[in-house]
Amino acid sequence: MKQLLWVLSVGMVMSTGVSSAQETQKLGDIVSQVQMRYGPYAVAVKDNFAFATDGSKIRVYDLSNPADPKEITVIEDKFANPEFRSLFVDGNFLYAGSVPISGQDHGVFIFDITNPEKPSSLGKWDDGKTVAHGLFVSGGKAFVSGSDGSHGRLVIVDVSDPKNPKTLGTYQSSSNKGYSKPWNSGNYVYVSDADGYLRILDVSNPSSIKEVGSYKYPGKSGHEPQGKQVVVMGNTLYMADWGAGFISIDISDPTNPKPLDVITHEEVEDGTDVYAVAIDGNTAYVANGWGGLVWVDISDKSDIKVSHQINPKYTTYLDIALMGDYAVCSDKGGFTNKPGLDIVKVK
Predict the structure, then answer these.
(1) Would the pTM of this model clear 0.90, i.e. be above it?
(2) What is the structure's pLDDT at 48?
């Protein structure tokens, strides 16, 4: 792999006028914003550092003081020129999935972020077919989801040696709908597709991956389902299903998933536009596209409820990562609002 070129640069940071003193910040306050050139498709957090995609770059921010973020470095490969769309942090490693746009390089890039101020390139995986829209890493394996351009696709990659990742197994759906962000729990991978289906795959044998269960919430006309992300907590799966809503599903029997409850269009200001979710305790924090950020009480998984919402004008939240009492939201922007990151007080 060609050597990555590292560039130290300073991004544009905007203060919202909120004091850095935590006691002056209220629930839902946007305590700071970072402007970027391109709307970040993905954001990930390690300790007090945030990583955000910016086209062919990954920008790294020090959020030790959430009200005063500092850009400390930029990861850039001037040779491969990938288009980064997904990020996942596992320990001291950052995994970045890229998609081919206008012939650009793609695959999964692996970085050592032991020192986030000086990240280093370790390796790259690419099977020449998979467009990596989603990543999940666990137990020395990376689960790469996306498509081959015509079918949903999941690839299991051995990343125990980050400098030499190797394909362990591949599953290609019979559907022509691509897969979104996956989740691995035990012998199963849970992933949703562009048609709104939850797909449950048995990955106990990586060389023989099998779909064992599925479910689709029908949605309503004008608010169609389109799977964006899933998160598994015990025997319950939570699904970000774009226009259809935010859904809780019983997966105690992976072969027979059953719906429990759903936050629909009518329950959210400006409707459901659900792209991503992060969960802490009994609260799910939902990146709701043009509908801002939504807090959902999931203490009763069969009766989930909106407990709070902020809906800043001209925002489009596509991804979210939690850092203590704050959420780092990737904002595609819109109209007069420029793309970047919003740091939001969520607790």
Answers:
(1) yes
(2) 97
